[in-house]
Design brief:
Number of helices: 15
Shape: globular
Strand order of the largest sheet: 1-2-3
Number of strands: 3
Helix content: over 70%
Number of domains: 2
Strand content: under 5%
Length: 299
């Protein structure tokens, strides 16, 4: 087994070097796009994850290298066609003035970069390896910033869902509450679930965590889908819990909770709460995914 793995790695050395050179050249060609993505990621809370996505994706490829690179074949024709399609998309994006508004141009050029990288991967390693590396390569799509119109709709959905959950929690604990859109009025205070309260950053972090956990530890398709969907739903629930908790603390303990440190930096606390809720579900799904008799399964 070890000899086979070493032999495979040695056989693919030239392919790895070719792909690294290709990545370096394509990164220089797309320098403006990469620079814009880094700047956007550092200044927009909905996209703070972007700078981490390539590192995670290529680490996954490294982690699963024996499986991904077990069968490799050069496929220049298909790879070059995919690279050309990415370059065409890039050219259209930077020349089409109608794409400059609403972040469409940056989204398109980021997608073009992923097509180029995927084309280089296909050219160096072939279709079998491309299929084996499907998750890490598709994971790169998370580095594509959403156009403003789509991002606004997602934030609106998070606002609406969070408001509804908070409203239900107030009713469940017996706190008088009235609702008007994104305004919740409870005794002594009226709060607005604004865009800044949508918790988009921690929701994306929870989605990424669920995707990685499902890919690494679950095998059955419907269980992977179920876990990811539960993570998406829980991102709304945990934000509703956050809003209700801060409001109740401001009513019964200290009004400063609505403007204090827990309000400004407490997203991580409620992110951990969401993970604790998901943990037993994940353990159950993982345990039920394992064969009842590993010895028989191996045979």
């Amino acid at each position: 087994m070890a000899t086979t793995a070493i032999s495979g790695l040695t056989r693919n050395t030239k392919r790895h070097l070719s792909f690294l050179v290709f990545m370096a050249i394509s990164s220089l060609v797309f320098y403006r796009t990469l620079s814009a993505l880094v700047t956007y990621s550092l200044h927009d809370e909905s996209s703070s994850h972007i700078v981490l996505i390539p590192a995670i994706a290529f680490f996954l490829i490294y982690l699963e290298r024996e499986r991904i690179f077990s069968i490799t074949r050069t496929n220049l024709t298909s790879g070059i066609l995919l690279v050309i399609s990415g370059l065409i998309l890039y050219g259209v994006a930077i020349r089409n003035s109608s794409l400059q508004e609403g972040n469409w141009a940056l989204s398109a050029t980021a997608l073009a970069l992923i097509l180029v990288w995927s084309g280089g991967f296909l050219a160096c390693y072939g279709f079998v390896a491309l299929r084996a590396a499907a998750f890490p390569l598709l994971f790169l799509l998370l580095m594509v910033p959403l156009p403003d119109v789509l991002l606004d709709r997602i934030i609106y959905a998070l606002q609406a869902g969070s408001t509804e959950i908070a409203y239900l929690i107030f009713q469940a604990v017996g706190t008088p509450v009235s609702r008007d859109g994104f305004l919740l009025a409870v005794p002594g205070v009226t709060i607005e679930v604004a865009k800044e309260c949508s918790s988009i950053r921690s929701s994306i972090a929870l989605l990424i965590t669920c995707l990685l956990a499902a890919h690494l530890y679950l095998r059955t398709g419907w269980k992977i889908l179920l876990f990811v969907v539960l993570g998406i739903l829980l991102s709304v629930v945990k934000n509703g819990i956050r809003i209700a908790t801060l409001t109740l603390l401001s009513i019964h303990v200290d009004p400063g909770f609505l403007t204090g440190r827990l309000h400004r930096q407490g997203g991580f606390v409620f992110f951990l709460v969401a993970l604790l809720i998901l943990w037993p579900i994940f353990l159950w799904l993982e345990k039920s995914d394992k064969p009842a008799n590993p010895a028989n399964s191996a045979i």
